[in-house]
Predict the structure.
Amino acid sequence: MHAFSRRLGAGSPLLCDGAMGTLLYARGVPMDACFDALNLSNPRVVQGIHADYVAAGADLLETNTFGANRFTLAAHGLAAEVRAINLRGVKLARDVRESAGRDVLVLGSVGPLGRYLAPLGSVSADEARAAFREQAEALLEGGIDAFVAETFSDLTEIALAIEALRAVADLPVVAQMAFTDEGLTFTGRTPAEVARTLRGLGVAALGANCSVGSSVLYEVLEQMRPEAAGLPVVIQPNAGLPSRMGERLMYLSSPAYMADWAGRMLEAGARIVGGCCGTTP
């Protein structure tokens, strides 16, 4: 049995880390930079964030590879660097884990391709599978404990991603969709429908992350749980919705507010809680 599955099977709740992008921005990285490429160009800042999350008690670290697929990297002229960026992303997280002195697991982060699938866009299903597979192979080579496919808004795209990840390895897959303020995906799917679909794809855990704050994702959790049929549910909200203060985007939910909602989510049956945009160690 894989280490991640053993930890899930042990029954205790697990704490995931929080935001990477908003912390990189807060630490001086320009908003228009390629955050994934920092694994190569500025590894120290990435490792510093991983280390801060471990020091704060995180059981799970997500690699800084959310956009490290050929399509998203191509926008920065880095389509040829998929393998190098993903490999280094895993190494940075694993190196922090080695010095943690406790059992921290590394999840390989896989996000959407950043391009619409056909017929809405130009990316075919086969091209999408190939891109996800290319990223997954590098994450696997780096030595992750599990995959996390996160912040997807289209069920068709996340299904292609999960198919590709599972074709590469039998590692556990955590699948997370993004929801709007109305508690629906951006393509109008309900939490119950999402949970049923993801459950049928053979994932190890399913849930929701990003886009909205804790109160909305609490309602999403309540609707997902009955349809998860016993699968662990993971919830990682933003620190509320951002407000623009001059040139900066500020997330206004306090750590105490996030902690209160995390406790409520665990009581409502979530097995993994963490944070997304705007959250900090």
Remarks:
- The mean pLDDT is 94.
